[in-house]
Amino acid sequence: MRWLLVVLLLLAIGLQFVPVDRSNPPVVADFDGPNEVADRLRHACYDCHSRETRWPWYARVAPVSWLVSHHVKEGRQALDLSAWGEFGAVSRAAVAAEMVEEIQDGTMPPGLYLCLHPEARLGEADRVALGAWAASLRPSSVP
User: 137 CB contacts (<8 Å, ≥6 apart)?
Assistant: First the structure.
C-alpha cells in the first residue's frame, strides 16, 4: 500500500511537468460594441471567448490545467471576441443572436464555470440588455 501511494505521488508530481498552453495571443480587433455590453461580455465571457483569459491558480495544476486549457481553446474557436472587429455586419448580427440565444437558454456561461466564478452569472437585466443589443445589430430588412 505504501509503494502504491509513493508511485501515485510521483506520478502526480510528474504530471505537473507536462506542458499546457496558457497563452493569450495578441488581440486582433477587440470588441467595439457599447460599453454596457462590453462590460457584461468581459465579465461573463472573456475568460473563454477572448485572448484576454485570466488564468486562475488551478489552471496551473495538472490534470485540471489540461481541462481548462482545452475549454479555453474550444471557446476561442467557437467565438473569439478579441477578433470581433474583423466580423462583417451580417456576421456580427448572427453571432450576437446566437450568443444571446445561448445565454437565454442557460447554456452560457456553463454551469461548471459559474460554480467556480459566481461573479460571471448574468442576471435578467444583463440578458435583457444583451438581447436588445443583439436586436439592434440585425439588418433592418430582417424581422
Answer: 89, 92, 93, 96, 97
Three-state secondary structure call for residue 127: helix
Q: If you count them, how many residues does the chain have?
A: 143
pTM beyond 0.90: the answer is no
Centre a 10 Å sphere on the Cβ of residue 69 and count the other Cβ atoms it contains: 18
The pLDDT value recorded for residue 117 is: 94
Grid coordinates in use for 45? 465571457
Give the residue from 28, 27, 52, 45 showing the smallest Cα distance to 95.
Answer: 45
Please answer whether residues 89 and 137 qualify as being in contact, where contact means their C-beta atoms are separated by less than 8 angstroms: yes
CB–CB of 51/26 below 8 Å? yes
Angle at 77 between CA 110 and CA 23, to 5 degrees: 90
How high is the mean pLDDT in each 10-residue block of the chain (143 residues)? 83 76 88 93 95 94 91 95 92 94 94 94 95 90 51
Within 1-143, residue ranges assigned H as helices are 2-15, 35-44, 46-49, 64-78, 89-104, 111-116, 124-137
Q: In a 3-state reduction of DSSP, which class is residue 48?
A: helix
